[in-house]
Amino acid sequence: MPQEKDLTQGNLISTLLLFAFPYIIANFLQALYGAADLIIVGKFCDSTVVSAVATGSQLLQTLIFFITGLTVSATVLIGKAFGAKEFEKIGKIINTMNVCFIVAAIIMSILVIFFDNNLLKLLKTPLEAFNDTRDYIFICAIGLIFIFGYNAISAILRGLGNSIAPMYFVAISCIVNIVLDLLLVGKYNLGAQGAAIATVVSQAVSVIIGYIYLKKGNFVFKFKFRNIKFDIKTAKELFKIGLPLSLQDTLIPLSFLFLFSIANAMGVASSAAYGSVVRLNAFLMLPAGSFAMALTALTAQNLGAKNSKRAFKALVFSIFFAFIFGIIFFIWQQLYPKTAIAIFTTDENVLEAGSQYLKTFSYDYLLVPIVFCINGFLFGCGRTIFAAINSICAAFLIRVPVGFILCSYISGATLYELGIAAPTASVATSIVGIIYLSYLYKHNKLTT
């Protein structure tokens, strides 16, 4: 397979689609990790275990996002260096990122294990699901270094224009995860513990395969783990770009965790329904997210090559293609919402609660193509601070307050009212993002 690709050359639409398509497949397969856990747990266990896995995986995903912010910054720096043909910088960026990644993963594992009870109480985890949720989190926390490893390796390759190799890595890992889920949860009845073990082991497989590929491949750099060195100047660049992303990617899911706590307070059925929708969105949001991620690397390479017009055109095309998917998903959830929740459970109470939520939340599928792609473009430009502030403000000044107010002051409020919060915040984020982007383009200030 091709190991590096110059994204600054060739037909833009075909380059974008060929680069984004493996992103979509890889993200789809990666989403199967959590979905397989929830689907298989839903088939073999009761709603208490489903609630545990849904709550635990949502919390772990929030923690994972913190590290992936740093890895995206590596994609940006590697992409710019590759586009500018400054190959000597790439190895330094990779080495420094790996040191930061390992240290952060170890610290986070310790913190999660130490504060697990406090976190679960903060989320208002149903009492009957508390112990299972804690077991799930504990096992996944031990394996955080493997869970984050795949994202780091993928960030390196995608900065080099290679979105195909990560797709193969995650495909193999996904198969391992599903097989282990069926074995540990289905056959040996290990419940939430079995789902967590399957996730950690499958991620470890992807890291091992990725490491071998980096070590044996013919890249513009030589990857030798034993020779990893830390460069303070490069670290500052990574943190300058990555910390706003880490903060955003941690706090945005945290805002949804606040909404999750509201759903938990409505009972086990609403908790399981909300968790099922979260898993569903891991699939339905991935086309927009994949185009945004592809756009980040494409933008970085083209700005490195001093070709901002090509990067801006890629933004327009990305929004267009992602919006096509959004329309399809919106129509599906408006007409047949129960069919989506039925993927995860057959419990009628959960189906009804989930369909209520999707009736209002589904408007977000029309808005996230704009939000995600503008952010992906700004990430590639290195304008992560504004993108993070815009998203965080929308989350905590609009999404959370709207959800809290509607569910607190409307008598008999259900997940239908809670679903209004997300699209309301997306409208605000889109408007502010478009205004800022227009300013940057008009004044030729796309790069930092």
Q: Layout of SSEs?
A:
Layout: H1 12-44, H2 47-83, H3 88-114, H4 116-122, H5 130-142, H6 144-159, H7 164-187, H8 191-216, H9 232-265, H10 268-284, H11 286-304, H12 308-335, H13 337-341, H14 348-361, H15 364-381, H16 384-409, H17 415-418, H18 421-442
Helix pairs in contact: 1-2, 1-7, 1-8, 1-10, 1-11, 2-3, 2-5, 2-6, 2-8, 2-9, 2-10, 2-11, 3-5, 3-6, 3-9, 5-8, 6-7, 6-8, 7-8, 9-10, 9-16, 10-14, 11-12, 11-15, 12-15, 15-16, 15-18, 16-18
Would you give an account of this structure?
The chain has one domain. It has 448 residues and is mainly alpha-helical. The two termini are 34 Å apart. It is 83% helix and 0% strand. Helix 15 runs antiparallel to helix 16. The longest helix is centred in the N-terminal third of the chain and has 37 residues.
